[in-house]
């Protein structure tokens, strides 16, 4: 982010969600970053018609095209009646005695009327299980809860697969995955994700914008698209932390959404795409590989940056600083490169880019 007085003032207002003040005081300024915050403020306030009027005077960059497309979609669907099919929320936890109760407390605020919770302690050696029991008390009495302890840590992909395979999910239409170190979740997250599933019938997965806890707002999961898939490396956009100034506040079709809070359509997950590959244990790259498989099966992945949540992401930090986790991440990246045919993947990515351009301008 550039440094000048007006950008800093606008950014401070954006951090504290003073969206009305941003529109009032900054909408006539020409700086691109300020205009990004102005457009994001219109969207955050639900003033879709106001954004559509305002954005006609801005350069038609990809970011503004997506904001305009999002505003048109939300304006068209704001009075639409949506179904509330059953959603099964899956949560796996391990050695999170300091976080899991807060994560459950946040999930319990979910305003969606039709969900169940399935939770497993993945071989914790601390007081995580006791904290889970305390956290479950926050949920409304009508929410069915299924919980169990594993005698040992079997890794994230196998743990998720266990919860998906052992229990009967036949009545559910969607499966939601939630991490055990979520810090803040909007109550509307599930309702908004289910709406996108209904409006995007080819979508198999929906996710949102992941933020670091606290202020200033820092994004660690924005628009994630492959930029390189070669015999030597995999690269995706927005792999590093960046200040959040509304540059991801729109709906987009992407290659990957951050796995700490996401929604899957159950039928493709079970019947076509398949469950999670246990070779990518304990966690690194498991979601990237699964989303790549999702694209290979012809499904879309939808990102909604207006659904934002805070996530501690201890594993992500360890994978950058701990030698053992770094080694595991490198190993899992190599496994992906050897699992898939490079020509097939790059042909798919080229095809999807062409389809994306058509969708963006539709």
Bulk shape: globular
CATH topology of the largest domain: Spore Coat Polysaccharide Biosynthesis Protein SpsA, Chain A
Strand content: 15-25%
CATH class of the largest domain: Alpha Beta
Unreliably modeled segments: none
Structure report:
With about 350 residues, the chain is α/β, with parallel strands linked by helices. It folds into 2 domains: about 5-75; about 85-350, Spore Coat Polysaccharide Biosynthesis Protein SpsA, Chain A (Alpha-Beta Complex), CATH 3.90.550. The protein is about 45% helix and about 20% strand. It is built from 14 helices and 13 strands. It has helices at about 5-15, 20-25, 30-45, 50-55, 60-75, 100-105, 130-135, 155-165, 190-200, 265-275, 285-295, 315-320, 325-340, 340-360; strands at about 85-95, 115-120, 145-150, 175-180, 180-185, 205-210, 220, 225-230, 235, 240-245, 250-255, 260-265, 300-310. Strands 1, 2, 3, 4, 5, 6, 7, 10, 11, 12 and 13 form an 11-stranded mixed β-sheet that branches. Strands 8-9 form a two-stranded antiparallel ribbon. A hairpin with a 4-residue loop joins β8 (about 225-230) and β9. α2 crosses α3. The radius of gyration is 20 Å and the shape is globular. It starts with a helix and ends with a helix. The relative contact order is 0.13.
Entry keywords:
Spore Coat Polysaccharide Biosynthesis Protein SpsA, Chain A; eleven-stranded mixed beta sheet; two-stranded antiparallel ribbon; 14 helices; globular
